UniProtKB/TrEMBL annotation:
Keywords: Oxidoreductase. Belongs to the short-chain dehydrogenases/reductases (SDR) family. This is Acetoacetyl-CoA reductase. InterPro entries: Acetoacetyl-CoA_reductase (IPR011283), KR_dom (IPR057326), NAD(P)-bd_dom_sf (IPR036291), Sc_DH/Rdtase_CS (IPR020904), SDR (IPR050259), SDR_fam (IPR002347). The gene is phbB. Coiled coil: none annotated. It comes from the Bacteria. It comes from Telluria antibiotica. One of its GO terms (molecular function) is acetoacetyl-CoA reductase activity.
Length: 241
């Protein structure tokens, strides 16, 4: 993957950071987007030499301008990992409109906003790798996450449709659905709740960001050219339990 340009949205912390580092190790020139945590972005640049760019993936015009900056600095995007996401949990009968739409715009709307900026170039060059990060909760649902689960479930249909449209143009499109991983987001879960979650994971532990990153790196590789339109569950068997 030497000199391939990879763009990872939400790529400066947690799963996104691990994915960005894994792609860099494969030889990619990596760009990572961020929105709220400047300190994490600066650390990634200083420690790993990964270029970081700030924009809101829920804003179409910001995505257009941001991807143009990535292309100007590193070259056209060959590998896109749509990873950026937020949560705004609440039971549905208490959820307000902002909680619903903020999550939908960021977690699902960004799939259009970012991918639309790179797809024509990939088709023209007859090469591209797109990996969309969903979630186990898009598979099975979760109390208090109707907004998050709806957005993550939508990614499956988006992935399959985009894969069909672009398979003849050398572009693969796949989804990865991580289970519960040891990230800042999961660390906010109450200890007793987290203990119950781990008890329901057949392998007996939380995942690591690297567990997910290794799967993404494979799907982004040239060697994965016959894999498209698929979803890969990285959850320690939890969805089976």
């Amino acid at each position: 993957m030497d000199d391939k340009v990879a763009l990872v949205t939400g790529g400066t912390r947690g799963l996104g950071k691990a994915i960005a580092l894994a792609l860099r190790e494969r030889g990619c020139k990596v760009a990572a987007t961020w929105h709220g945590d400047e300190a994490a972005a600066r650390r990634l640049e200083e420690e790993a030499g990964i270029a970081t760019f700030r924009w809101d993936v829920a804003d179409f015009d910001a995505c257009r301008a941001g991807v143009a900056r990535v292309a100007e600095r590193l070259g056209p995007v060959d590998v896109l990992v749509n990873n950026a996401g937020i949560t705004a949990d609440a039971m549905f009968h208490k959820m307000d409109e902002a909680q619903w739409w903020n999550v939908l715009r960021t977690n699902l709307g960004s799939m259009f906003n970012v991918t639309r900026q790179v797809i024509e170039g990939m088709r023209a060059r007859h090469y591209g790798r797109i990996v969309n990060i969903s979630s186990i909760n898009g598979r099975k649902g979760q109390m208090g996450q109707s907004n998050y689960a709806a957005a993550k479930a939508g990614i499956f249909g988006f992935t399959k449709s985009l894969a069909l449209e672009n398979a003849a143009h050398g572009i693969t499109v796949n989804a990865v659905a991580p289970g519960y991983c040891d990230t800042d987001m999961v660390a906010k879960v109450k200890p007793e709740v987290l203990q119950a979650i781990v008890a329901g994971i057949p392998v007996g532990r939380l995942g690591t960001p690297q567990d997910v990153a290794r799967m993404v790196a494979f799907l982004a590789d040239e060697a994965a050219g016959f894999v498209t339109g698929a979803t890969f569950d990285v959850n320690g068997g939890q969805y089976l339990a």
